[in-house]
Amino acid sequence: MDWTHYRFRSLWTLPTPPAAVFAALERPEDYPRWWPQVRTVTRLDDTTGVITVRSALPYALTFTARSVRHDPAAGVLEIAMTGDLDGWARWTVTAGGPGSLARYEQDVHVNKPLLRRLAVPGRPLFRANHRMMMRAGRRGLAAYLQAV
Fold this sequence. Notes:
By secondary structure, the chain is α+β, with helices and mostly antiparallel strands. It has one domain: START domain (Alpha-D-Glucose-1,6-Bisphosphate, Chain A, domain 4). Helix content is 31%, strand content 44%.
């Protein structure tokens, strides 16, 4: 088993129409306004930016994100990631109940030296840290969408 490889999946139920959810998710430069753990997003061009995230554990991850799929009709946003994390992440937004379902999938390898050294003993904490970050993101996005 490669202890530096992670696959994450989250499903956010939101009381907002899919088009509004997609519109918020396609603007990563606004993420720090509603997602506390997304500390900075610096656009490099129309499809690429540098993102720094930090959750409860005392480390930040910085990576370059490059859009590889932007499909409003299918509700799909996908990025390739390089830096402290190498891999990909994808949002898929669909109708669900009275609002939307935003499915998040991520498949990455960790490159940050400290996290690689702590890969085996730290894995449960790293996974818990990610879950906390995703819960906070869902709450933040729901509040942000209600305010706009």
